[in-house]
Amino acid sequence: MRVFGTFLWVVMGAGMAAGANAQGWPVKSIRFVSPYAPGGGSDILARSIGQKLSENLGVSVVIDNRPGAGGVIGTEIVTKSPPDGYTLMLGTPAPITVAPSLMKKMPYDPLRDLTPITLVSIVPAVVAVHPSVPAKSMKELVALARSKPGQMTYSSSGNGGTAHLSGLMLQTMADIAIIHVPYRGTGPALTAAMSGEVTFTAGNIISSLPMVKAGRVRALAVTSEKRSPVLPDVPSVAETIPGYAAGPFYGVLGPGHMAPDLVNRIRNEIAKILHAPEMKNRLSAEGGEPIGSTPEVYAAMIRSETERWGRVIKAAKIQPE
Asked: What Rg, from alpha-carbon coordinates, does the chain have?
């Protein structure tokens, strides 16, 4: 009985500590990991959320850029952090829903070692080329690729990133042979297209839009099922290749095994930020859709997208490395 009583007090104490943690959170600075290089859409969004989170909570929120391995390096850091709400990350599909199908040995299990907090936004990507590329539509780009099999190149934020997989899907569905050139982040990948170093890229609309408007790259299509309100004259890839749909979704996650009340507290704070007029208007102007879902909805999306990208990778006959 004494052993059981001791065990009961330990369990009750742990529960009370978790509750107190949620009620008292935050009492110190928060590290917000961005698993990509500065300048990309993920980094821009992380900094926007981090700034507002800092203002609303009255503590500093430090953006910690940890690029590499398609986001896996930064994500691994989060999975190995204490689940106390002081290490968060802005997640993208690459290290969470794609890497399990591309890597033989994952340093973490996304479904076990991460806690989904809220789905932030779903953002389409833009298929964009240097102005010198002789293609002014997706139909012409596909025709160009067929006339030069294995010669056209496309840049991405890294192996396993959304841009990489968007290209794989395009290659499979359009029956073309193109070469993938990985970079360390969306910013460098976009720069490669602007300089003519690669034929095209498929960067998210947040980072691509300013370059499209400035004429540094030419937008051929968006990767969402329908056209984007911020680029209404740019068709979707699906208008040329029926059934095509790809694009990054962003969400906030923490280390695995976070207390539910703490998760809900953080989710509510971020949802408040996303639906404030300033952030809502900013995301909409950049082609994003503010969401602020429940943890359960985000978790379900992670599971379904893991299965979907697994099928894409299998169809492309890519072996895990």
From this structure: 21
In which residue are the tokens 């408040």 written? 272
- The model's pLDDT over 156-182, given as tens digits with 9 standing for 90+, comes to 987 777 788 889 899 989 999 999 999
pTM above 0.70, yes or no: yes
Residue 119 identity (one-letter amino acid): L
Residues contacting 194, CB < 8 A, separation 6+: 130, 211, 216, 217
What does the alpha-carbon distance between residue 203 and residue 189 come to, in Å, rounded to a whole number?
A: 8
Q: Let me know: does 158 contact 94? Beta carbons within 8 Å.
A: yes
Residue 304: burial class (beta carbons within 10 Å; 0-12, 13-18, 19+):
exposed
Neighbours of 235 (CB within 10 A): 18
Query: How far apart are alpha carbons 232 and 205 in whole angstroms?
Result: 13
What residue ranges define each of the domains in the chain, with the CATH number in brackets? 2-18+27-122+248-315 (3.40.190.150), 125-239 (3.40.190.10)
pLDDT digits (tens, 9 = 90+) for 3-23: 334 333 344 444 444 444 677
